[in-house]
Amino acid sequence: MREIRNEQLKLSAFHDQLDNGLNVYVIPREGFKQTYAMFSTKYGSIDREFVVPGADEPTIVPDGIAHFLEHKMFEQESGEDVFKTFARYGAMSNAFTSFDTTAYLFSSTDFLDENLTTLLNYVQEPYFTEENVEKEKGIIEQEIRMYDDDPAWRVYFNLIEGMYQVHPIAIDIAGTVDTIQQIDKDTLYKCYNTFYHPSNMSVVVVGDVDPVHIHALIRDNQAAKDFKRQPEIERIIQNEPTPVRRARHEEKMLISMPSMQFGFKDMSRVSGKEMIINEYATSIGLEALIGRSSPLFNRMYEEGIIDKRFSWSYDVTPRFAHSIFGGNTKDPDRVLAVVEAAFAEATEHGVSEEDFNRARCKMVGQMVAALDSARALARYFTSYTFRDADFFDIIGVMESLTLEQVNQRLREHLDPEMRTVSIVLPK
Amino acid sequence: MNQFQTREERGIYVHVLPTDKFRMNTIVATFTQELREETATPLAVLPYLLNRGSERYPTPEKLQLALDELYGASLSAIIDKKGERQVVDFSMNVPNEKFLKQGEGLFKKALGILSDVMLRPRLEDGAFLPEYVQAEKEQHKKRLAAVIDDKIVYAGERCIQEMTKGEPFAIPRLGYEERIDEITPQSLYAVYQELLKTAPIHIYVIGDVEIDQVVQDIFSVFNMERDPQLHFQAVQVQHETHEVKEVVERLAINQGKLNIGVWSNVAWESDDYAAMHVCNGVLGAFPHSKLFVNVREKHSLAYYCMSRLEGHKGIISVYAGVEFDKIDQAVDIIREQFETIKKGDISAEEMEFTISALINAYKTAMDTPTSFADFHLNGLIAGRVRTREEMIEAFQKVTVEDVVRVAQGLQFDTIYTLRNEEGNHGA
């Protein structure tokens, strides 16, 4: 067990990699009532083509299968639903699937050992039958239809689709009503066996806990299971061409006001510390440029074309990266025109020293704020681990970034050729 | 320490909870007023207007800059509805400087900004600045129109409105669209003055602070003359239903929404409140509850089917997203679950799981500073302040007989369904 310490934040993470390859992190937070635990696999909707270790040919799986698999993990051979097992020990349990991660989690204030054991066991004991797979299709179909009525999801996904030409990120995480029909138990097992190997997974536990005890519990649990070391999984993603798929997409829905998002595809493919530098140079630049106290944001706010919920984000992983800006607006084209002019100006002259300092100060504070949420801490930690980066490096990186680095990143990133727009208009 | 220390002067209550558990310090400041047709709309606009700027920070940009300088401190101002009260709610979050390289006196500076926004708005000729009022009226129209954008929330609110027609509870949190145009800078200022003078003011501070210092700082800032209102109209909790109302609305949507409004005739202040929570838990609050197990797991009719207890008014709301042609089947299954509980068909497991889940949820909330304030204020408004520990103890004592007894009083009032447009069988 190795301690990773951040003196400034007065926070430690205790890390161990087990013989089967599983990475375990325990982050003690004194005084917290809840313990939040997340068991995650580096497997999401973009892993649609891969070579099963030991096989010669690549496998292509139906869209939505990672998410389908997440649903099916809750079923157990005993017939008892996992929700129920957690309920027995007063825990709240859940799971989610993203582009590149599937995570199973619980939060509890009691019976930590029992809950942690439940989490480890159910995720490692799949039980799929033809019948229980068929039954799940009705539930997932309703989940897909629910999202079809959600304007925020529609505008977001249309944007992602508009950005990427061949990258599987453009496929809806849940798949479609048609593609989920092609999913069967054999394919689920194939995906499970490939991606749910401990060497492709991590456990993060946050709470008022004893790291030695937690590490011992997980180590013993894993030692009793028979996992052979598995070679690296070969994931196949076609090379994404540079330009976006389409510059603009519109859809109509029953909503009160147009909802828009626009963003820039980013071809950076970095990981580890380099990725953190890239991520925060870009983020500080975007916050300085269009964050809530920027002149640009306030010009649009005063003009009445955006409200305070207009926001930006920058997502970066070793396999995709993009920025997204958006909100509700009565005049999407006016917003685009104002932004276009301001972005052109920023790439030419850069953001000011003052705006840079303000943005950096704000983002450091927000990182401190995240530490008060067990959930946020566990999620951040997992996502950085999966990108071979260290969450604790972030504040140091932010403090060492220079205005020149930030302006350089803005120039690279805000390339008009890489921009796409998605608008949902009222019917 | 888990309880607030309270000091009061002139109807201003300062509740302080000193703790070094969090990396952030939190201030929540609230004005409470009776929910009334005439004042609901202007009161709803008020917090958003005040949050546009003050004497010292005269524009949204300057205000945001001041916050960013406090390491990304956040200030939100919203209107809340608690039972038949409207609550103007300001929340401030600021990092504790112990975890930052620079930054001194952040808490005191944050309190300064908050009090400035609450007490020293931008005025012109003895009323609010007309441009700001105009802009905020426009924003508020959009806020009201946007209620329809989230179909799940929309259907839930419509069901409650139909159910509580003619009672103050039916007044929407955001007020009425048709009353926005009546608002003038003078009329809004008068509503504000009335609020400053008469509304009970509760200010919560949770964080690494010293009680006497905080109390002194707050009273010296909030030093106006006041004539606080002491008595409020009691909330109408008891209801007799004679015939179940069925309301159908049609919109262009992909998935049907089913909402059922049920009177519990038990509210926050009742000795049966804990038992009603357990009853709602057995019924539909959790993944182990009857609704989830039967509607989703057994019949695959929905992705979500849950129930929620509104504590001030004593309403249980059932909500589900269901295929249009399966809504009737879902209603039948939901009815059956109510009957099952009334007959006492509740397993020991269901009781045990529900009680542990409630205890877990109440303990977990102690990790979120704002939820301390929220829970305390709910108690004050309902006229019975309980601690979370008391609630936890009460849950532990609830028996099956208690649940059956309170379940006997449950009465279906309104079945609200949102369906697709007639002749359009898109799903």
Kindly describe this structure.
The complex is a heterodimer of chains A (427) and B (427). Chain A is of the alpha+beta class and 427 residues long. Chain A has helices at residues 65-72, 82-88, 112-123, 130-148, 151-163, 185-195, 211-223, 272-290, 295-302, 332-349, 353-370, 374-386, 393-400, 403-413; strands at residues 2-6, 11-17, 23-28, 35-41, 49-51, 59-60, 92-97, 102-108, 201-207, 234-235, 248-253, 259-265, 311-316, 321-328, 419-426. Chain A starts with a strand and ends with a strand. The model of chain A has no long low-confidence stretch (mean pLDDT 95). Helix content of chain B is 42%, strand content 22%. In chain B, strands 1-2-8-3-5-4 form a 6-stranded mixed beta sheet, with helices on both faces. Chain B has a 5-stranded mixed beta sheet with strand order 9-13-10-12-11, with helices on both faces.
Describe this protein with a few key phrases.
heterodimer, A: 427 residues, alpha+beta, seven-stranded mixed beta sheet, 14 helices, 15 strands, globular, B: 427 residues, six-stranded mixed beta sheet, five-stranded mixed beta sheet, 13 strands
Strand content of chain A: 15-25%
Termini separation of chain A (Å)?
58 Å
Major sheet characteristics of chain B: 6 strands, mixed
Unreliable stretches of chain B: none
Give the overall average pLDDT of chain A: 95
Query: In angstroms, what separates the terminal alpha carbons of chain B?
Result: 55 Å
Largest interface: A-B, 71 and 73 residues
Query: Which regions of chain A are unreliable across 5 or more consecutive residues at pLDDT < 50?
Result: none
Rg of chain B to the nearest angstrom?
23 Å
